[in-house]
Write a structure and sequence with these properties.
Length: 385
Amino acid sequence: MTQLIKSKIAISAEINRKIEKVGYDSGFSTVSVIAIDELKTLTSLPRNYTKYLNSNMVGDMTYLKKKLRYFHRPNEILPNVKSAIVVAMNYLNQSSKQDWQKAELKKLDSSDTGYVSIYARGRDYHKVLKKNLKSFANKISMIIGEFGHRACVDTVPIFEIELAVLGGIGWRGKNTLLINKDNGSIFFLGVLLVDYPLQSKKKITTDHCGTCTACLDICPTKAFLGPYRLNPTRCISYLTIEHKGIIPTELRPLIGNRIYGCDDCQLVCPWNKFAKVAKLSDFDVRNGLDNAELVYLFSWSEAEFRERHAGSSILRIGYQQWLRNIAVALGNAASSKNGNRDSSENYKDDSKEKIIFLLKKRISESSNLVGVHASWALRQYDSKV
């Protein structure tokens, strides 16, 4: 190896070190640089992805098909792209205790409160990550000079998990989520595409799930077809967020008290005992969404919904879907069919009467979407009354 090559390698390593440092200073838990040569390996991914999109398992997520061509062509997202910097940002709220998994699982047994996925209890992660990626880019320019870049957070068509695997951030778990040995899976991913040539540093991390199937076994709706294979149309996160229409009757009892998203497969993952709390306060709980009563949430007006969820990712599902989800949870509060729910006899009479009153009120005042699910919920109480 010539002295010149050694010098270039040393300079590249120093640039990477500085980039990692400013990344950590920007609130990220992990930073990894990927060179353009490795980005080219993404060209083989669309074959399987296209097959998946052509199946009947995408449901309402037809927007994925519209942007398929971009997923393996990052140069069409950022012209002359040379490298990608993949980052992870922890989102476990700062007040979480060591036994947070056990505490979250216990919340799923409540008949009174609604379960909101941990990631959605604070500020909208799209806004937080994009803001921090832009700040990160400004700091990088102090190291390498001005450069072109594109901040990618979830809504940009790019295989961020595959990039993270290439960058050694983690491996794709059997629940299809990225898992990191030091942080579990309670983190968001972001990608900064850059037109500056950077050298890759980290190697691909091998799979460490072993024989564990805890995530597959706990899924309430049996959405997993097997390890690493998910049918989104049965996933509670899909049903309560992406799905815009009527939730299939047979799946409603399985949703329990989950009104926005589902964390079950992460709550039982052994690697999440290593999950770290967020560096940023943006993901702290808002509006008591870690323990909010269903009756209270169901009584919100549309103006209250918009005001209280301002700056939250929950806002994007809209008021009618919000009510739909809560109506299902209220129906499940009256039924013991799903095995982890108290029967309606455990309700105080006044609470039960208030739920029935609110359900009837929503049937008469709300959209057909809400009315269908509120009527179903009301029937669960009528059978007990």
